[in-house]
Amino acid sequence: MSITPQAHLYATVRTPFGRFGGALAKTRPDDLAAGVLRAALERTRLEGGDVDEVVLGNANGAGEDNRNVARMAALLAGLPVSVPGTSVNRLCGSSLDAAMAGARSIETGDADIVLTGGVESMTRSPWVLPKPERAFPAANAELVSTTLGWRLVNPRMPAEWTVSLGESNEQLQEIHGVSRERQDAFAARSHQLAHAAWESGFYDNLVVGVDGADLTRDEGIRPEATISSLAALKPSFRPDGTITAGNASPLSDGASAVLLGSAAAADRIGHDPLARVAGRGTHAVEPHRFGYAPVEAAQKALDRAGIGWSDVGVVELNEAFAVQSLVCVDAWLARGLSDPEVVNTRGGAIALGHPLGASGGRILGTLAAAMRADGHRWGLAAICIGVGQGLAVVLENEDAA
Questions:
Q1: Phi first, then psi: what are they for 359, rounded to 5°?
Q2: Which residue among 8, 283, 288, 354 is the active-site one?
Q3: Segment 106-118, tens digit of pLDDT
Q4: Measured between alpha carbons, how far is 2 from 256 in angstroms, rounded to an integer?
Q5: Known catalytic residue: 328?
Q6: Residue 367 lies in a domain
Q7: How many domains does the chain have?
């Protein structure tokens, strides 16, 4: 009787995340991705030809991402031309989706070693100009930014679905009663924990520099941020709103890589795995309620892993907005999560940054490292996604079993 292969996480690495228009602004996204692919392989004894597939997430694809940034990055990284590459676009969840796809390939026996991850340069995301419906139009045409959010909206979409991401989350805080004070406290905690993690050396082995860029740490961390300083910021989306530039994730640039393999691949890779991929979950809701989607995605991942919330020792939740993060954590606490303090113990996207296509790989790598550092057997990574989706992955640290 054949035994179904299991997917394991062997190596993770990312760039420092740069601010919009900051230290990584001059680096193309395909170069950012190529750098982390090379760095991931350097943490093993693999040759490029040992990789069966490259799967990268990317939320844009309209510019230097070149439609299939995975193939471009693999070539730029020096992998043999025989190594195929495919790009995944599930917006903010793209690189977590890439890792999920890579894990499935291993579990089905289609691959033994898959190099996954993702990339986004929100700074370099281009403007686009729609083609006219007929030749020689006399009217002016409008350039559309591809940096973030809805663009070229289909008029058949219900108007309530296509409000801005910020307005969506203002509506979410109204429904769930999440105060401005709670959001600012959550954001201050993110900055303080991220700074403490860097100071302790936690991120030193997870982050590699970018050629030609003078950046060694995530550029958006503000260790001086406090509840009172954040309270002084003006609302960004409503005059009387609660969401500000301080309690939402910033526009960012960066890349991440996650090397996955079967248990049998350990000898070729050169070391034991960091964690096993134990469960995956996807869920969808109304587009403007996207911030809540990780709640059920996480539940599905836990169910498929055969564990409950009381088993989870650490959670990495991408902090798109403080309000949606708090809503998710509140829902998980009601279902049995032990303590809100197990969420984002090394800071989150509000401080570290949120380069859309790279964030899933970032939270997965941080999760695996935190589980091993703190001795937890079970951990969960989850992310909300624009247009009403959520993803989650459960990891098992088999050394802590």
A1: -70, -35
A2: 354
A3: 999 999 999 999 9
A4: 34
A5: no
A6: yes
A7: 1
Average pLDDT over residues 252-280: 97
Q: Is the pTM of this model over 0.85?
A: yes
The C-alpha angle with vertex 368 and arms to 362 and 371, in degrees rounded to 5, equals: 135
Confidence of residue 401 (pLDDT cuts 50, 70, 90): confident
User: Which residue is catalytic, options 8, 92, 283, 288?
Assistant: 92
- Whether 8 is catalytic is no
Is 70 exceeded by the pLDDT of residue 400?
yes
| Residue 156, domain member (yes or no) | no
Catalytic residue among 8, 328, 376, 384: 384
Domain CATH for 386: 3.40.47.10
Confidence class for position 299, pLDDT limits 50, 70, 90: very high
* Residue 211 included in any domain: no
Is residue 271 part of the annotated active site? The answer reads: no
Note whether residue 233 is domain-resident.
no
Range of the domain at 314: 7-123+250-396
